[in-house]
Amino acid sequence: MIKSVLQPIPSYVMSVFLLPTTLVDEIEKMINGFWWGNGGSSRRGIHWLSWDKLTVHKNHGGMGFKDLTAFNMAMLGKQGWKLQFQKECLVSKLFKARYFPRSDYLEAKLGHNPSFVWRSIYSARRVVRSGVRWKIGNGVNIPIFDAPWLADGGCISGEGQTVEVIQQAKLDSLINPDTRSWNYNAINYYFDHGIVHRILRTPLFNQVEEDQLIWKAERNGHYSVKSAYRLCMEEIGDISYLHRSGCWSDIWKLKAPPKVKNLI
Hints:
Number of helices: 13
Distance between the termini: 20 Å
Strand order of the largest sheet: 1-4
Mean pLDDT: 88
Radius of gyration: 23 Å
């Protein structure tokens, strides 16, 4: 009931609007009360676990209920992804003309007197930024610093870099164009050993001719709400402190009635 009815009800609204924190808290309290009270209106039940612990994945000791705030951001991130990569869409053209005519969604500013829809989609920019990485082609469009192009999705911080000649340089200055390989001498000259190792571990593919941003959490490089929600929970929100060690996956695989597994 909770996963198939109660939580999906606000999904359509959450795909366009950022729900107020007070409303989200109210919905989650209702769902939590429904779970522990066994659906009864008069029996409140004992809340043996907090709602935060119930939203942890089943393999880590939770019940796998959705955190509505994180799910809301993941849904809004999909709209932001469309504004960034589906630029020929009429809605994308309208938003671009109104709010970021000289840039793109990832570099846009909130602007003056924004609508509630734009304010909501803009709030998910952090999610999209955290999940994208560059797929390296010729490297002419990728900044060396503060851009996610390393194999692990990370970037090289431009802070503290004393070599001004590469501060504004693009990645193509570190690539041998003829062999499509890293220019080891240049990399070793400008960076310390740790960064050199990370750069050399980043693959360069001859099939990729142009630089493009992709979604790092999916093999096809396209945004998905599922992987974005996981990103919100594990990386941005970091709820690892709520994980409980144990053979939880084995419990959920038991051939037993759901109420038995829930009790365990």
